[in-house]
Amino acid sequence: MSDDAVQVRDVVVRYGATTAVDEVSLTVPRGRVLALLGHNGAGKTSLLQVCEGFRPADAGECRVLGLDPIEDHDELMPRLGIMLQSGGIYPWATAGEILRLFASFSANPLDPEMLIDRLGLRKFERTRFRRLSGGEQQRLSLAIALVGRPELVFLDEPTAGMDTEARHTTWQLIEELTDDGVSVLLTTHLLDEAEKLADDVVIMRAGRVAATGTPAELTAAAGIDLLEVRAEAGLQPRSAHFSAEEKTPGEYVITGRLDAAALAEALAWFATAGAQVTAVNSRRRTLEDVYLALTADNKAGVSR
Which GO annotations describe the biological process of this protein (predicted)? Predict the structure, then answer.
């Protein structure tokens, strides 16, 4: 395998007769962010567990920082930062005690006081973990994942429960990590988060990869789903390949599967009608549009 931060090839994860991850392959290059997207039950968490060395794959191969996550687990763990959705933190300890404890495990930690201030934990540092709100617990979990100066960070729903300010602070920290060469594999249900942070996206559906690419590649492949044309009023554009509606006099909204041929046909209709077009605007599909189109028929699945 190459020197990528994470390389997964044909990994399978089974729970009894149920296949949660079905021959999935993906790569996280060094210093990049890969967002793993999919509904609950799509197999994301099971795949992360394989990469983190918390369970073996039933088939396939996984290398993390060039090592086997199971066989080389003790060697690998000091180089990783892992932010879990829940668990793994002492509920009776205070936020400050917990972060300083985890910092003590590292040979060259980040300054925990800096992380406490950056993530807005100062006013909660004497509060026991079990009394923190969900968003406050997420902030602390993120600080724990980062305090050891990891080469690779696994972030499972990193901003779940956070307010807007904390979300943007978290995004900034992740961008700073990648600027320093840290690799990031994250899962999120927030499509704007994935579109902002991710260099690469893998969308999973029912345990398999449904699509992969950069956010720009995925949205470009999805095409344009709305065209606005300004021309003289009272026209009735029509075609078997698109639908048109005059929303206000002279303002036409054209919808349908607007590939290059359909777009050309729509504009040609106005030219043939002798109508002078004074403005054209298009709406390209977002990552959320792509995600919903690929996963709309798979609301249920294995809860892993």
Answer: response to antibiotic
